Amino acid sequence: MTGVGFLGAGVIFVRRGSVSGLTTAASVWLTAAVGMACGAGLPALAVMATGCHLLTVTILAKLGRRMQSEPGSTTLIMRYTAGEGALPLALGLAAEHGATATVLGAKTVHEDGARTTVRAVVQLEASPQVVSNLVEEMTDIASVQSLRVLTEEERPG
Hints:
With 157 residues, the protein is of the alpha+beta class. It has helices at 2-10, 22-39, 43-68, 86-96, 128-139, and strands spanning 13-15, 18-20, 72-81, 100-112, 115-126, 144-149.
């Protein structure tokens, strides 16, 4: 069981406040339990456990998609190094994901010789899942220094 726990833990990732892989980790545990049920001569229990798992995962996935499918408005504060194409790249990523991105404003916040840091306020119209994926991809842009999602209280206007 310790080995199964390590396998399950190996598929769970936490990245920038987002946890992924929990369903896969649970499936690893279930697979081990089904295997033990078969090995113990309880195939009916193995079939029932597999059926319950598949039913639960299917229903919860549909319910999750339905809950997250409604687009909402999310405001981001993005700090990036000017002149390296970060903002056009971020807006292009939004378009690829089917999100509407609007730059509400941008201003220079720091100049250090050859480097200029810009702070942009970007509004995204997309489902929470799309926004989560976009934030993850936008933070991977090399010239993006920071990216922050504003809460309802912090939003302008």
